[in-house]
Every structure is written in structure tokens, then in C-alpha cells.
């Protein structure tokens, strides 16, 4: 992954929800681009530069029948495919909000960076070969300095297509030793892997994934988590804009 050794000159960030991206789009005054691939799916692109760093943001867009953001793995994979085909960025980041776990000492608005791999907890197929295919385990960037620099935690991130978690989901998540549960990272990482593109996930915690009230927590903490996410992303992009290589992350 990240098969070149020079400075990272182009980063692309994918967000499922516009509200997760809006603070960053406004802070960096990124300009919307038209006539790009994926508009039939609602995918939107924004671009700008920070010193020599090109920054592209892609949003999954909205579902025209339900008028809500296109969250979940199908839309994430489509957007990742369109984004990588159109731009060939050096680094793809799955950015957004996620659920954490009290027993790991996680707090609301904590920031997590992906570690080791991203994986899926609810793609269960108990047939040899398909079982490990379903779980995935897609590679993520190895980080040495970034957690300290961004005052972020690190952990295995697991992806599924529900905001809540069944008992079986929670058992699998525990077996996977995952610290973070969300709905896009593994789908994006799979597309990045197929395209030999480096991948990293950066997630802000809105709720406790094992709490029966996690929907309410998500709504209540969404704005604070998105602000923290924006602050972290601005620090990261500012760091990269000095011309950093993968080895410096
Ligand atoms: N996004 C924010 N919180 C989440 C959760 N608990 N599960 C999946 N995606 C999330």
C-alpha cells in the first residue's frame, strides 16, 4: 500500500454524512466540483489546496427516495470506486463518526485512527472460505507518530450495516478485538486495496455501540463529535501540507 516513497501530495477524504464533512468544507473553503463520476448515485466532490497538498473531499450524497444521506457499505464502495478512478489520490481516508465501547475506556468525541486492519462484524457466512471472505480484514496504514500528534487513540475498526448491535454482533466484535464500530471503513478499504491505494480511517465517537440508547446518544453527541473530527482533520492536513512521506505518519 502507498507504493511510492515521496511526499503525500494528494489526499482524498470520504464522508458518508454531509454533517460530518460540513465543518471541514467550510473551514478549508473547499469548492464543489461538477461533471465528476458518480453523480447518478448522488456522489459530490469538493477540492482545494493547503500549501502543496491537494485535498479532495467526496460525499456519498443523498438517497432521492428517502432524502437522507447514503450511509452504509454499498454507497461507500461506490463512492470509493468513483473517487479513486477519477482522482488516483495517494491516500484515501474514511472520515466520520462511529460507536465506541465503555469497557475499552472510550469517551464521547474521542478520536480513533485505524490500526492493524479494518474488518466486518455482520457479514457472516459459516462456510469454509466464505467465512474469512465475509470478515474481510483489509489493510490500513501503519502509524508511528500520528496518534500522538493528533492526540488520538488507535484500534481495530469494524464495519456493519446497522447503527445498533445484536448480541451476536457484540460477540463477534469482541472476538475481533475491535474498539470502534461504524458503517463504511471496510468497504472503502476493500476498494483501496484493489487499487493499491493507501488507506486510513479517522473516526469521532458519538455513542456507545453496546448501549440500547445508542441512537439517542448518536443524535445528542453528533455535533460535538463532528467539531472534534474537523479539528483533528485540520491538524492532520496542516501536518501533511509540509510535504510528509508515509514513513513520517
Ligand atoms: N456511527 C456512529 N455510531 C455508530 C454505531 N454505534 N454503529 C455504527 N455506526 C455508527
How does this structure look, described?
By secondary structure, this protein is of the alpha/beta class. It is 33% helix and 29% strand. It has 7 helices and 12 strands. A hairpin with a 4-residue loop joins strand 5 and strand 6. The protein is globular. The two termini are 14 Å apart. Adenine binds at residues 97-99, 163, 181-183, 206-207, 209, 214, 218.
| CATH architectural group | 3-Layer(aba) Sandwich
Unreliable stretches covering 5 or more consecutive residues: none
CATH fold annotation: Rossmann fold
The number of domains: 1
Q: What is the number of strand segments?
A: 12
Structural class: alpha/beta
Write the layout of secondary structure elements.
Layout: E1 10-15, H1 18-28, E2 31-33, E3 44-50, E4 53-59, E5 62-63, E6 68-69, H2 73-87, E7 91-100, E8 111-120, H3 130-135, E9 138-139, H4 146-149, E10 153-159, H5 167-175, E11 178-182, H6 185-194, E12 198-208, H7 214-240
Parallel strand pairs: 1-4, 1-7, 7-12, 8-10, 10-11
Antiparallel strand pairs: 2-3, 3-4, 5-6, 8-9, 8-12
Spell out the key features of this protein.
ten-stranded mixed β-sheet; binds adenine; Rossmann fold; 29% strand; 249 residues; globular; alpha/beta; two-stranded antiparallel sheet
Task: State the gist of this model.
The chain has 7 helices and 12 strands. The protein has helices at residues 18-28, 73-87, 130-135, 146-149, 167-175, 185-194, 214-240; strands at 10-15, 31-33, 44-50, 53-59, 62-63, 68-69, 91-100, 111-120, 138-139, 153-159, 178-182, 198-208.
Amino acid at each position: 500500500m502507498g507504493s511510492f516513497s515521496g511526499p503525500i501530495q494528494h489526499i482524498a477524504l470520504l464522508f458518508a454524512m454531509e454533517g460530518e464533512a460540513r465543518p471541514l468544507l467550510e473551514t478549508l473553503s473547499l469548492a464543489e466540483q461538477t461533471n465528476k463520476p458518480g453523480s447518478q448515485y448522488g456522489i459530490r466532490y469538493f477540492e482545494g489546496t493547503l500549501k502543496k497538498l491537494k485535498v479532495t473531499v467526496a460525499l456519498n450524497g443523498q438517497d432521492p427516495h428517502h432524502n437522507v444521506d447514503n450511509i452504509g457499505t454499498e454507497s461507500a464502495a461506490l463512492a470509493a470506486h468513483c473517487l479513486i478512478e477519477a482522482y488516483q489520490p495517494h491516500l484515501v481516508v474514511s472520515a466520520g463518526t462511529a460507536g465506541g465501547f465503555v469497557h475499552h475506556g472510550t469517551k464521547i468525541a474521542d478520536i480513533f485512527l485505524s490500526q492493524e486492519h479494518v474488518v466486518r462484524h455482520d457479514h457472516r457466512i459459516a462456510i469454509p472460505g466464505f467465512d474469512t471472505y465475509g470478515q474481510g480484514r483489509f489493510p490500513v496504514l501503519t502509524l508511528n507518530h500520528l496518534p500522538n500528534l493528533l492526540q488520538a487513540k488507535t484500534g481495530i475498526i469494524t464495519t456493519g450495516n446497522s447503527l445498533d448491535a445484536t448480541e451476536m454482533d457484540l460477540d463477534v466484535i469482541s472476538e475481533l478485538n475491535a474498539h470502534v464500530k461504524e458503517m463504511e471503513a471496510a468497504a472503502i478499504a476493500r476498494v483501496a486495496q484493489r487499487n493499491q491505494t493507501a488507506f486510513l480511517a479517522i473516526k469521532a465517537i458519538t455513542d456507545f455501540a453496546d448501549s440500547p440508547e445508542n441512537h439517542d446518544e448518536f443524535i445528542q453527541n453528533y455535533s460535538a463529535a463532528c467539531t472534534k473530527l474537523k479539528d483533528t482533520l485540520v491538524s492532520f492536513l496542516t501536518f501533511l501540507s509540509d510535504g510528509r512521506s508515509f514513513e513520517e505518519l
